[in-house]
Amino acid sequence: MTLKAVVDTQLDGDVSRVRGYGTRFVGVVFPGETLRIRMWRTEGRVQATVTAVERDDAPVLADTVVEHV
User: Fold this and answer.
1) Which of 2, 7, 45, 66 has most Cβ atoms within 10 angstroms of its Cβ?
2) Counted domains in the chain
3) What is the Cα Rg of the chain in Å?
């Protein structure tokens, strides 16, 4: 879901622009939870963090990087 959100919002929905994806799991997600994805762009990459809204933004994913063209 995180990669889809990055592609849809930062890469104009063009999945062919993705060159690499990496992330680190730092927490659990329970069914029905809302996830908050914060992302920012730098040269050739988008970085992101993902948190669980209902648990006071408990971290779920960290060190997420999407490399793109």
Assistant:
1) 66
2) 1
3) 12
